[in-house]
Structure formats: C-alpha cells, structure tokens
C-alpha cells in the first residue's frame, strides 16, 4: 500500500505527457526545427514552476515525508561526460522521438513497437556500464 | 469535459510536469526516469558481471512503480481522455515531413513510417528503433540523466551540470534532425 502514491504520480505523469503531446515524435521533430513554441513552452513553464517550488519550499522550510527539508541530489561536477553523454542522448531522442519517460507511456497508448526501443535502451545502458571505466568522465 | 478531452496547452502541461517533480521530491525521492533502465539491468542480473549494476535495486522499486503508473496513464489518456484530434503541427514542419515522404502527418502520436509494423519489419525501420533506443540508453547514463532528471529537475535546482547536459541534448538533437534524418528519409 505504501507504493500506491507512486502509482498515482506515475498515472498522472503519463496522462499529462500524452495530453500535452510531449510524447509525440512529431512534436520533438518540430521542436528541433524551431517551428513551434509548444515544446519550449512546456519545458520553460515546467522549469519556471520547478524553480519557484524549490526556492519557496526551501525558504519556508518545507519538509519531505522523511522529515528533512526538501532537496535535490547534486550532480557531480564535470564537463566532458555531460556534453558527450548529452549529445549521444540528443541524437537518440531526435531519432526515436522518445526519451525514457515517454517510451513507457507510449506502450500504454498501444504502440507495442516501442518495446523494441525500450529493449535497445536497456542494452545501451548495459553497454555504458561495461565501458564506464574506459570512457572519459 | 471538452477541455479535458482536447490536447492540453503548454502553459497547463508545463506546471503539471513540475507538480510531478514536486510530489516525488515531497515523497523523499527524485524525478528521473532513465534510472529505471539501470535498475532493469540490475534485476536482469547484470550486477554479476558489471560492477555498475551491483546495487540494491530493491531501493529503486518505487521508481518502477512510477513507470508502471506512467504506462497506465498513457492508456487512460489515449483511450479514455482523448477525442481523435490531429496534432496541430506548424505548416512548415508538415511541409518538411511531406517532402521527406511522410504521410498522414500528425494523425497519430507517432509516424507510421517509423513505428508502424510495416516499417518495423524492414531492415531500415528496425535499425532506426534499435539505434535510437541504444543511443538514448547509452547517452542518458553517460550524461547522468535524461529530460526529467536534467532538463526539468536539474535546471529547476539551478545546477550547471544539467545545463551542460541540456545543451548537449540540443546539439545531438539538431544534428539528427537537420543532417541525419534528411539522409535517412
């Protein structure tokens, strides 16, 4: 039962991403061609709302369910891994038109060919794990 | 009800995505979808051979539940909460896709030319899905996050690594969209 809230958040997330069309290959293609404000509006207002939530939440001392002040894990400092990893991710994002959230959501909309993309993404993650120590971070 | 059934505008969807992040942070977790790919590797036994996957994946159980919910949410939104509506793409995008040989542009969430079974069962179509998925899975772990972890959570918490990663996302996305996709189609 303690997991029911995570199921509810996931359902809500899936509904929002479909209704916003952010799961659409077409919208991603359009975004990278700078031909519509739609995706920039979504990401922009999400980040703006997120900044407000975190800043105001911290100022007000908002506590999470474990009783600590709300916080976000800090990403370790580096340049090379973020730029190279980011570029590789971006190539795949624009080709498949789906990032890791929408991949699962789209299976729910009945696109079962997406399971091939998910399997390939799991394999890609595995290969990263194998090569991790040989890659520049 | 009509408002619910139509596509939602960006100024509604964006803040609602931030709400997803806020709820997960309030529940003492974090918003990051790509972590599940690593967890699935670990569940599959990858930790026996590769140290990167040797961790207590049971601590990530909650995130797999979020993903399960997302699949259900996708079903609800698509089959119960949507009127059949074309995606309102810009004319120039539709023209470009038309020139690349796409048909029924915006009539479904994904193009048949990539995700339809006719395409999937061809060498080209299958390669697109496998290479696309592989790049996403490899890149997201190398770069330490995806759209949810970097673009939403990382930028919301004003972290420089996430800004660098998002710039990377765009470099890769622009190369694919403007130089590689036109070669493929």
From TrEMBL, chain A:
The chain crosses the membrane at residues 38-57, 78-98, 104-131. InterPro entries: DUF6691. Keywords: Membrane, Transmembrane, Transmembrane helix. It comes from Spongiivirga citrea. This is YeeE/YedE family protein. It holds the Pfam family DUF6691.
From TrEMBL, chain B:
InterPro entries: Sulf_transp_TsuA/YedE (IPR007272). Its main location: membrane. One of its GO terms (cellular component) is plasma membrane. Pfam families: Sulf_transp. The keyword Glycosyltransferase does not apply. The keyword Cytoplasm does not apply. This is YeeE/YedE family protein. It comes from Spongiivirga citrea.
């Amino acid at each position: 039962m303690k997991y029911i809230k995570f199921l509810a958040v996931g359902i809500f997330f899936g509904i929002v991403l479909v209704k916003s069309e952010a799961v659409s290959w077409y919208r991603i293609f359009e975004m990278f061609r700078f031909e519509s404000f739609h995706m920039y509006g979504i990401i922009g207002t999400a980040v703006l709302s997120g900044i407000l939530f975190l800043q105001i939440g911290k100022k007000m001392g908002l506590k999470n369910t474990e009783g600590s002040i709300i916080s976000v894990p800090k990403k370790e400092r580096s340049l090379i891994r973020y730029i190279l990893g980011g570029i590789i991710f971006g190539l795949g994002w624009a080709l498949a038109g789906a990032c890791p959230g929408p991949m699962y959501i789209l299976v729910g909309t009945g696109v079962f060919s997406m399971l091939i993309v998910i399997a390939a993404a799991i394999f890609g993650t595995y290969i990263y794990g194998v090569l991790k120590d040989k890659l520049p971070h | 009800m009509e408002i619910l059934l139509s596509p939602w505008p960006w100024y509604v969807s964006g803040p609602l995505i931030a709400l997803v992040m806020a709820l997960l942070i309030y529940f003492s977790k974090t918003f990051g979808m790509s972590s599940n790919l690593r967890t699935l590797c670990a569940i599959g036994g990858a930790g026996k051979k590769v140290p990167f996957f040797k961790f207590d994946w049971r601590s990530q159980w909650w995130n797999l539940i979020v993903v399960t919910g997302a699949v259900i949410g996708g079903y609800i939104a698509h089959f119960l909460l949507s009127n059949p509506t074309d995606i309102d793409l810009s004319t120039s995008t539709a023209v470009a896709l038309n020139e690349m040989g796409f048909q029924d542009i915006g009539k479904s969430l994904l193009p048949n030319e990539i995700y339809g079974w006719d395409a999937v069962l061809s060498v080209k179509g299958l390669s697109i899905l496998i290479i696309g998925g592989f790049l996403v899975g490899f890149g997201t772990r190398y770069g330490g996050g995806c759209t949810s972890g970097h673009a939403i959570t990382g930028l919301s918490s004003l972290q420089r690594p996430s800004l660098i990663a998002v710039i990377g996302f765009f470099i890769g996305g622009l190369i694919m969209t403007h130089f590689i996709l036109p070669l493929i189609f």
